Amino acid sequence: MTDAPAETVAPRWRPAPLLPREPAQDLLLVFVAAVLCFFACLSVIAALGADRAARGWAGQLQGSATILVRPSGSESADSAAERAVEALSLLEGKGVEEVSALEKEKALALVEPWLGPGAKLTDLPLPRLVSVELSRKSPASKDTLERALKVAGVDAEIDDHSLWIHDIVRSGEQARLAAACAALLIALAAAAVIAFATHAGLAARAEIVEILHLSGAEDRFIIALFQNRLAELAAAAGLLGAAAAALVAALARFMGGGAGLTPVLPIAWSDLLAVAPCPIIAAIIAALAARFTALRLVGGLP
């Protein structure tokens, strides 16, 4: 029986990496970056949900109008509401889908929380409300409704919810802006953390950097060591943060039932895909921060 070749028995020599790994520091950096990525992804998901809620509310208000009917003379409120319904029903198919008068009991139920259960609501001269469902494609304008009521001689006030729609749209825009600002601040914080880590890494490995520099290694080679290493750590942190944010959003969506946390924050399953680019974005931010920091420090070597 012949002996095995020496090269198959002796362990192969493998060179150590020029940039030694430090598990404790790497783990701390990944944890901090993952937390930042987690909050950044949550802000993006929350912004998508808030925008969806704002658009849903605005769409509901745009498709309806409320008519407040006031009786004139000896006419009863119910009679005035019936005449308003008849006048507006003539517009069905011309921008109006459906017209209905709010029942007296429902009108009293709307007032009761303000006056208290002990108030004699039946003795109050409450106006009647008429609900108008408008066409989604070509809704009737406020002027059209006013003309129809004026022809019928109905004293009424029309609320087309334009004020509320404006406020809701503005709130949606503010939510998107707040999310964008939050994501930007978190990105800046992540860049600052990466820059600090790069500075600390260069300071801790000053001898290695100096030896490489004196051995003729180009600055871009030394910079690439830190840039690639920190980009790798940031990508891992981004993956962990994005996964955690997607899990929290999925739990919120699941606990909210079929429509999520409607109407406060309607999260859709497709929103979870918004966190997918997080590892790539985190790696790019880390690479740029590490590159500029290392370039400034290495460039100062003699």
Description:
With 302 residues, the chain is an alpha+beta fold. It folds into two domains: 167 residues, no CATH class; 75 residues. Helices cover 63% and strands 8% of the residues. The protein has nine helices and four strands; from the N terminus they run H-H-E-H-E-H-E-H-E-H-H-H-H. A four-stranded antiparallel beta sheet has the order 2-3-1-4. Helix 8 runs antiparallel to helix 9. The protein starts with 5 loop residues before the first helix and ends with a helix.
What secondary-structure arrangement, pairings included, does this model have?
Blueprint: H1 6-9, H2 23-62, E1 64-70, H3 77-89, E2 96-101, H4 104-115, E3 128-134, H5 142-151, E4 155-159, H6 162-204, H7 206-214, H8 219-255, H9 278-298
Antiparallel strand pairs: 1-3, 1-4, 2-3
Report the major sheet: 4 strands, antiparallel
Question: Structural class, judged by helices and strands?
Answer: alpha+beta
Overall residue-averaged pLDDT value: 75
Oligomeric organization of the protein chains: single chain
Count of alpha and pi helical runs: 9
Helical residue percent band: 55-70%
Count of individual domains: 2
Can you tell me the overall shape? rod-shaped
Q: CA-to-CA gap between the ends?
A: 61 Å
Beta-strand content: 5-15%
